[in-house]
Design a protein that fits this description.
The protein is an alpha+beta fold. It contains five helices and 15 strands.
Length: 288
């Protein structure tokens, strides 16, 4: 899987995973809800040092049947964003096609962030991706709500809580199962650092993000913030409510590399859809 990774501060993750929730305050709460439940690892906020803000949402196009194509960005350095299509919404709910209604992009620069270059890259990506995105989402065709997932409009993601977490012991077991495939000189016995629930299917299976580190993995004498002594792993794992998963097919490696800090990544929606398929992910399609 091809992934593009950009280094972020660890505090971004620690704050977003704390017990404090951030509630969206902007004018596009319907589109916010759509993006939150469409993009698995969406957090629903933009963290700027000590300031938390709403994600950036910009409406780009609308079709004759109520579909909306919009821009969504919650990355504080403005490099990672999504194009998303919402089928429709009403006073209480949003509707969208699962796993085909968004695409992610990462802006690349030779040096520091440049607004003109960023705008050109966003325009190019939009022009390259919009027709396929529209085709996959029946743009300008009569509405078929039976192909949609439906979520109640909300200002945060309601199942990102500790009630659905699995034990640290299980998380360490998952990380160690993967770590055994790596040639690490000095792996930690307990690499687990944090976890998140990303999505839930119609039968109670969870898509989980499990994050861990191996410090001094190469037996060097440097500090843990030295690139040579800090190995980062991020796994996506589909489990039942107790954390049981298919060890042959239930784990997807998102990040695995020496780092100095934590990473943000993008991924191909086709790969996520296939990962769900082979793990018998069940969709709770709307029944009009």
């Amino acid at each position: 899987m091809k992934k593009i990774v950009v280094v972020l501060l660890m505090t971004l993750f620690l704050v977003s995973l704390s017990g404090c929730k951030y509630y969206y305050k902007g004018k596009y709460i319907e589109l916010f809800t759509c993006a939150m439940y469409s993009i698995p690892d969406a957090k629903g906020m933009m963290w700027l040092g000590e300031v938390v803000r709403d994600p950036v949402i910009e409406v780009l196009e609308q079709d004759d049947y109520g579909r909306t194509l919009f821009y969504y960005c919650e990355d504080y350095n403005k490099r990672i964003y999504a194009l998303v299509i919402c089928q429709t919404y009403n006073e209480t709910s949003v509707y969208f096609y699962p796993d085909v209604n968004y695409v992610l992009n990462y802006l690349k620069f030779d040096g520091e962030y440049n607004n003109k270059i960023a705008e050109k890259q966003r325009e190019t990506f939009y022009l390259e991706k919009r027709e396929k995105l529209k085709e996959d989402n029946d743009w300008n065709e009569p509405m078929e709500l039976s192909k949609c997932l439906s979520y109640t409009i909300a200002s945060n993601k309601d199942y990102q809580g500790e009630k659905n977490y699995i034990s640290k012991e299980l998380c360490n077991e998952m990380l160690n199962d993967y770590s055994e495939t790596l040639d690490l000189a000095n792996p930690d016995a307990t690499p687990f650092t944090w976890q998140r629930v990303l999505q839930e299917d119609a039968e109670g299976k969870f898509l989980r993000e499990i994050h861990g580190h191996h410090y001094n993995y190469d037996k060097s004498n440097g500090t843990v913030f030295n690139n040579n002594t800090y190995y980062e792993i991020t796994l996506w794992v589909i489990t039942d409510e107790n954390g049981v998963y298919d060890k042959n097919h239930g784990m997807l490696v998102m990040v695995s590399e020496p780092k100095n800090g934590s990473s943000k990544y993008i991924y191909d929606t086709d790969e996520i859809r296939e990962f769900k398929r082979i793990n018998n992910w069940k969709y709770d399609y709307y029944k009009p």
